[in-house]
């Protein structure tokens, strides 16, 4: 009964009894929730030292009402039983470190690698808690910054197009004329082109459909800045995807930084400085091509688990069910 959140309702329906009553019976009598050894502190922290492995991931997730938990997971478990090593309420480094240090140092010293994002608190937790582990900043967090910078430029031009269209409509009304927007060869207006270009800018052009290719040609012709920003974003992604050596990766990133400097894009310069400030842990990606994808995947499982409960009313019981499956 611990495997699925809707088991109680399904069983209750089968036997024609109240699902709500059966859930209460399960929580209070049928399960081991009342005698769970971690129940007294479950809302604040949970640790499972036996689940520690050589390669870990650390990330944050929300259980309810935007209350964040720091989650430490074992990559070797592949999102199944034995995945959760620790869950700690909040993201404050000192609090999380104090809980993780309840795991004996001898076990923590066995960890050789930990993946994380660029948040300073996560870096400090990883450094203090696992002194022998190589810290690897997730490449997808770096790439996400570049795609967000690209979309920021597209959105800037979209607002300009909306403003220009409003001005043209007002002018037409003033002159008692009918407003006719400019229609491009693919039947988009300028405003529509900028709105509908959102999705293909995330993708490599080799994956564009025929319609997306036509739209891209029009967009890049009208807005060379967007084309240049797209090339910078794709260039960064290509470095991570097509490089296997750390030294070569470092050289390619240096060339990418130079292109960013020449572009003059403020947002991309911010990304460039961010990479420089974290370059050592970013370059560690090229050793084993490790990412934080397993942590993101596990966060998705927690959210799906939560949605089946239609929210989290009793955090301790929710964590009890969650850890029965994944710890």
TrEMBL record:
InterPro entries: Transpos_ISL3, Transposase_DDE. Residues 56-321 form the Transposase IS204/IS1001/IS1096/IS1165 DDE domain. Pfam families: DDE_Tnp_ISL3. PANTHER family: TRANSPOSASE FOR INSERTION SEQUENCE ELEMENT IS1557 (PTHR33498:SF1). This is Transposase.
């Amino acid at each position: 009964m611990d495997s699925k959140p809707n088991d109680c309702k399904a069983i209750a329906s089968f036997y024609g009894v109240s699902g709500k009553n059966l859930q209460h019976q399960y929580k209070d009598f049928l399960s081991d929730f009342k005698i769970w050894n971690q129940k007294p502190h479950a809302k604040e922290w949970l640790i499972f030292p036996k689940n520690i492995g050589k390669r870990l991931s650390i990330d944050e997730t929300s259980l309810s009402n935007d209350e964040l938990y720091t989650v430490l997971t074992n990559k070797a478990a592949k999102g199944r039983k034995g995945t959760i090593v620790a869950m700690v309420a909040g993201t404050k480094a000192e609090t999380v470190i104090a809980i993780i240090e309840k795991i004996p140092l001898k076990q923590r010293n066995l960890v050789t690698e930990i993946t994380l994002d660029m948040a300073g608190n996560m870096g400090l937790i990883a450094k203090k808690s696992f002194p022998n582990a190589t810290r690897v900043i997730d490449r997808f967090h770096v790439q996400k910054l570049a795609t967000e910078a690209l979309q920021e430029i597209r959105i800037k031009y979209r607002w300009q197009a909306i403003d220009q269209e409003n001005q043209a409509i007002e002018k037409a009304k003033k002159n008692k004329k009918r407003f006719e927007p400019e229609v491009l060869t693919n039947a988009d207006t300028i405003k529509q082109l900028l709105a509908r270009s959102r999705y293909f800018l995330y993708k490599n052009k080799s994956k564009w459909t025929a319609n997306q290719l036509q739209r891209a040609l029009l967009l890049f012709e009208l807005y060379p800045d967007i084309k240049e920003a797209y090339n910078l974003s794709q260039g960064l992604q290509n470095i991570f995807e097509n490089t296997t050596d750390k030294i070569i990766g470092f050289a390619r990133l240096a060339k990418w930084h130079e292109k960013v400097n020449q572009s003059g894009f403020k947002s991309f310069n911010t990304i460039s400085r961010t990479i420089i400030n974290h370059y050592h842990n970013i370059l560690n990606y090229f050793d084993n091509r490790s990412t934080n994808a397993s942590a993101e995947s596990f966060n998705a499982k927690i959210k799906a688990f939560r949605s089946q409960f239609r929210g989290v009313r009793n955090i301790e019981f929710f964590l009890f069910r969650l850890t029965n499956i994944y710890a």
